[in-house]
Amino acid sequence: MSPLANRLVTKMNGLGNEILVVDLRGAGFGVSAPEARAIARSKGLAFDQLMALSDPRSEGAEAYVTILNADGSEAGACGNGARCVAWTLFRDDARDEIFIETAAGRLACRRLGEWRFEVEMGAPRLAWTDIPLAKPTEDTTAIDLAFGPSGAPLLQKPAVVSMGNPHAIFFVEDFDAYDLAVIGPALEHDPIFPERANISLARIVSRDHIELKVWERGAGLTRACGSAACAALVAAARKNLTGRRATVSLPGGDLDIVWRESDDMVVMAGPVEFEFETELDPGLFADAAA
Ligand SMILES: N[C@H](CCC[C@H](N)C(=O)O)C(=O)O
């Protein structure tokens, strides 16, 4: 019998961020970008990110998680997706803490409730080489990037943070003055970002509350982005606009983010929603399973 027989595709969302989870552990291989798109196409499923689970690569982890964006590109981090993966793993596990592995490293996931999870997203990477940027930049809280007419740019000097994936955050007063559907793709592909970038607009509501809108690399405008929420809190704290803990309100809802002083860890807590499960078509992996 194919190692892919009787496997499921789980459709979930994290605050409206559309997530597919595919558990391929024990199949002996992961899922490639074309296969991810084939899975979604075969089921007529739209997704922002697909989280493909394969066998863990280190002791004590439940799975290695490959994160694929809607455009097939691979992402190093996905906060909303990590919470959805945690829900699928905790279903059959009585523990309250498990570990998953991603390209960004080993993430601790904790159950806070039946539909609420916390993920330790790792320490922020703040050096220009780690974002990465294409040119040496001393101050990553305000980089040399602008959008709009050179004489009077509409937006300029974003902060940049990597959570295992690149984020640029512009702090603005009035969201309605900017069309992120136009600005996002222009800046996602700006040559300053050799690996492209997720582009966010952040509005400081108070010292512990940020409003955020995100244009996601490889996925476009989404209802929420967990790694962007983490990046925005880190950037705001670095610029002394907030403390090291804030509620981040995205179009899809709120995430609670803390940037721990003791170990530099960024911790994200938020809800997940289960939508449905459907059979995975082994035929999509014909060459890999052969
Ligand atoms: N939605 C995800 C972020 C995916 C990031 C992806 N767009 C990239 O970095 O390429 C989240 O909740 O963190």
Automatic annotation (TrEMBL):
Which molecular function term from Gene Ontology is one that the record holds? diaminopimelate epimerase activity
Which residues constitute the catalytic centre?
Answer: 78, 225
- So what does this thing catalyse? (2S,6S)-2,6-diaminopimelate = meso-2,6-diaminopimelate
> Could you give the subunit structure recorded for this chain?
Homodimer.
Q: What is its EC number?
A: 5.1.1.7
Provide a GO CC annotation, any one.
cytosol
Question: What does it do?
Answer: Catalyzes the stereoinversion of LL-2,6-diaminopimelate (L,L-DAP) to meso-diaminopimelate (meso-DAP), a precursor of L-lysine and an essential component of the bacterial peptidoglycan.
Subcellular localization is given as: Cytoplasm
Q: Which principal EC class is assigned to this enzyme?
A: isomerase
Mitochondrion in keyword set: no
Q: Which PANTHER family match?
A: DIAMINOPIMELATE EPIMERASE (PTHR31689:SF0), DIAMINOPIMELATE EPIMERASE, CHLOROPLASTIC (PTHR31689)
Site described as Could be important to modulate the pK values of the two catalytic cysteine residues, located at 167, 216
Q: Which InterPro entries match?
A: DAP_epimerase_AS, DAP_epimerase_DapF
- What does the entry list as the binding residues for substrate? 17, 49, 69, 79-80, 165, 198, 216-217, 226-227
Task: Identify its protein family.
Answer: Belongs to the diaminopimelate epimerase family.
Name the keywords, alphabetized.
Amino-acid biosynthesis, Cytoplasm, Isomerase, Lysine biosynthesis
Q: GO biological process annotations for this chain's record?
A: lysine biosynthetic process via diaminopimelate
Which pathway does it operate in?
Amino-acid biosynthesis; L-lysine biosynthesis via DAP pathway; DL-2,6-diaminopimelate from LL-2,6-diaminopimelate: step 1/1
- Which spans of this chain does the record mark as coiled coil? none
**What is the name listed in the Swiss-Prot or TrEMBL entry for this protein?**
Diaminopimelate epimerase
